[in-house]
Amino acid sequence: MPPASSPCQLRFACWNSGFECSVTRALRSSLRFYAK
Asked: Which of 5, 9, 15, 31 has its Cβ near the most Cβ atoms within 10 Å?
């Protein structure tokens, strides 16, 4: 899985109406919360 900062994934997120982006953001928030 390529990093979220890769242009390909960013382009896909935009193409996917930002759904992928919001999901990734939510997952990262959860991981950060559980990592504490």
From this structure: 9
Place of tokens 């559980």: 34
Q: What is the pTM of this model?
A: 0.40
Q: How far is residue 3's CA from residue 36's CA, in Å, rounded to a whole number?
A: 22
- Residues 6 or more apart whose CB falls under 8 angstroms from that of 27 comprise none
The predicted pLDDT at position 14 comes to 54
Boundaries of domain holding 11 = 1-36
Query: Domain total for the chain?
Result: 1
